[in-house]
Write a structure and sequence with these properties.
The chain is of the alpha/beta class. The protein folds into two domains: about 5-105; about 115-355, no CATH class. It has helices spanning about 5-20, 20-30, 40-45, 50-65, 70, 90-95, 100-105, 120-130, 220-230, 235-250, 260-265, 290-305, and strands at about 135-140, 155-160, 160-165, 190-195, 205-210, 255-260, 275-280, 310-320, 330-335, 340-350, 355. A hairpin with a 4-residue loop joins strand 9 (about 330-335) and strand 10 (about 340-350). The structure holds S-adenosylmethionine. S-adenosylmethionine binds near residues 112, 211, 214 and 281. S-adenosylmethionine binds near residues 117, 141, 212, 213 and 291.
């Protein structure tokens, strides 16, 4: 196995350990020491960002489709009850049996839509609304299935309070699902905010629009399977959040068009009577340097035309060095016309919990 591939496997193993997936940490450590060479064969010459996650996601998909029963017995997401830390021999067998399919799956960049990232995004949004007092026009690049374009409809909790739709003064049960006819949100993010509590202000979203190179329809079974396959199988709370967010998406319309980020933001302009918020989370490393620079230029151009009645905000949840995949990300906010630039908080890349500064 090439040393570079081995380093990627071990680096991703460390990230999985830090982000609460002992199962993937163990599988990747075993893959890095694969004596039979099947991992090297499957991964081939690939070097693009996220290819290790592509291998894991493709195998998970095979499991969720019921095509790998021995491995499924170790996958909690497939109802498996055997120890996830003992999955390696069965995982290796799936690589051998489905080598061509897994190799082909690497060409597809991993596509998550992590509902936990609503915690950093909504905290930042409340900061913007507290400062402007205006309704929000929300534009997201790399929106995937657009689940977080509905983030204002999720319930996000802090030990001293929280945010979100609720019919009662008390938060709904953690991990509980509110009935569909209740104003409570089916998505509840417990212990999502720590440190300072974000401003408590009414939030009205008047437009929800995003783009993605490969937009997913959250109502489609195929798209749901794709998103579920990129969740780490021993993280069942993430699966629950995803399923609950599909329910919210069915009730709250949002548009995600097929377009690259820079193309989508080309011609961006402020809108009178609303604050235009451009946000993105965990997508910057997938853009080329040129496209990332163009995105900033489009937002800055719109910022130059912003007024007190038509402000612009640029809210991101990405690594400090935005071009890298890292297990800790920061919530950064730039606003116009005031020209302010701030880091508001930080947390693990899946978004929970966020510590506000
Ligand atoms: C890791 S996912 C994160 C999705 C979502 N932002 C979230 O936080 O859950 C990255 C997403 O960015 C999209 N993407 C990658 N490069 C892109 C680009 N240049 N323009 C638009 N979308 C892009 C991918 O298709 C994918 O849906």
């Amino acid at each position: 196995m090439r040393e570079q591939v081995r380093e990627q496997l071990l680096g991703q193993a460390r990230a999985c350990a830090e982000l609460g997936s002992p199962m993937y940490a163990e599988l990747l450590a075993r893959a890095a020491d694969d004596p039979g060479g099947i991992v090297a064969e499957v991964l081939g010459e690939r070097t693009e960002i996220g290819f290790v996650l592509g291998m894991l996601g493709t195998v998970h998909r095979i499991v969720l489709e019921g095509r790998a029963s021995d491995l499924a017995a170790h996958y909690p997401t497939a109802g498996g009850t055997k120890d996830p830390l003992d999955a390696w021999p069965a995982f290796r067998d799936v690589l051998v049996e489905h080598a061509a399919e897994v190799s082909a799956g690497l060409a597809d960049p991993p596509q998550t839509n992590e509902v936990g990232r609503a915690a950093p995004l909504v905290g930042g949004l409340l900061t913007v609304v507290a400062a402007t007092g205006l309704p929000v026009r929300l534009l997201e690049i790399g929106a995937s299935a657009g689940l977080n374009l509905r983030a204002d409809r999720f319930r996000i909790l802090h030990e001293r309070g929280g945010y979100g739709p609720s019919s009662s003064p008390h938060p709904p049960p953690v991990n509980g699902r509110a009935p569909l006819d209740s104003p409570d949100s089916p998505v509840v993010l417990p212990d999502a905010w720590r440190g300072a509590l974000p401003p408590s202000v009414p939030l009205t979203v008047v437009e929800r629009r995003g783009c993605d190179l490969a937009p997913l329809d959250p109502a489609s079974p195929e798209a749901r399977l794709r998103l579920l396959s990129y969740v780490w199988p021993d993280q069942t709370a993430r699966v629950e959040r995803l399923r609950a967010a599909f329910e919210v998406a069915a009730r709250v319309p949002a548009t995600v068009v097929r377009a690259g980020a820079a193309e989508f933001l080309d011609g961006l302009a402020p809108a009178p009577g609303a604050v235009t918020v451009v946000w993105h989370s965990s997508m910057q490393p997938y853009m080329s340097e040129d496209e990332a620079a163009l995105v900033v230029r489009h937002v800055e151009n719109a910022g130059a035309a912003a007024t007190g009645d038509s402000p612009i905000a640029y809210l991101t949840f990405e690594a400090r060095d935005g071009s890298r995949l890292e297990s800790v990300q920061v919530v950064a906010l730039r606003t116009w016309p005031d020209g302010n630039r701030r880091v508001l908080g930080e947390g693990p890349s899946h978004g929970l919990p966020i510590t506000w500064f």
